[in-house]
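User: structure tokens for this one?
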Amino acid sequence: MQMIEQARKTPLYEMHIRLGAKMAEFGGFLMPIQYTTITDEHLATRTHAGLFDISHMGEFLVTGKQAEGFLNTLLTGDTRSLADGKTLYTLLCNEKGGIVDDLIVYRIGRERWMLVVNAANLQKDYRWIKAHLHGDVQLSDLSDAVALIALQGPFAESILGKSPYRQASHLKRNSFLEFEEKILISRTGYTGEDGFEIYVSPERSVEVWETLLGVGIGSGLKPVGLGARDTLRLEASLPLYGHDLDSETTPYEAGLDWTVALGKADFIGKGPLLQQKKEGVERRLIGFEMLEQGIPRQGCLIWKDREIGKVTSGSYSPSLQKNIGLGYVAAEFSAVGTELFVEIRKRKRKARIVETPFYRREQRDSV
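Assistant:
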């Protein structure tokens, strides 16, 4: 109870209360978990569109003449490959190659960048980046000055196209556009669907939220809480920090090889990652589906003839109508098709490793 009382409120808190949301603490904020049911909101996003308050996320501004070079030594991705108006999913790694956080970097200009980090890691990330600052580079925490709304689903483009922000509806994937009204919109998301993320000042957040709900009501747009956000990202096999990623896990173990640009100049963690790339990993993140009843949860043991790993994320999949999960297992048992057991409530239940992502949306030329 004390944790809930100390939790902060997003600028949209009163809106969630009026909409009847069930609220709970997450990442230090009181967040909407669900408005109706998780399944209803999940399927609405998959078939029509969902509107999410994700203002708990953190935003940092990195500026200066040497900002680009600094970020290239800080992040696993190659920031030099980005053009203005583009985004990149990348990682902060420690000296051992472990993941400090996964984030999205926005190139506003050569000397102006925005980093979007996980809410639970905000303070840790800020300290980490600040400790490595060098040269003509400045770091600012914009989190309190930014509200973040996500519009996701197959109708997201058409809904945005009917709004005052219609200019952004034609963005390519991983691109963004700034508006004069202190609004930045990117074609990004964390659901496995097409969609947009809208960065707006707190004082204008209710206006943007109500505008989008108003124009989207005829297209089946619904407000969606963090409960469905979690099942959506799991179906799309998108990792969640603190579950599937942590400071003891490397990008190669997590299947995030594509985020590591080993060909660029030195960056934090490059040495160990280069060695792991050559020698291979001892464990891998796998996706599995349950063959027997039972919902896998974080921490459940995974067995073969012996204990071979643990579940990091698991849930019932509303889209696939089966129980699925992610977990780390010894590399020798990580092949697709391998049958294993997940220990749920002290009983070992059959499961099988499958290809990920579990769910793939229908691709469209526009994105």
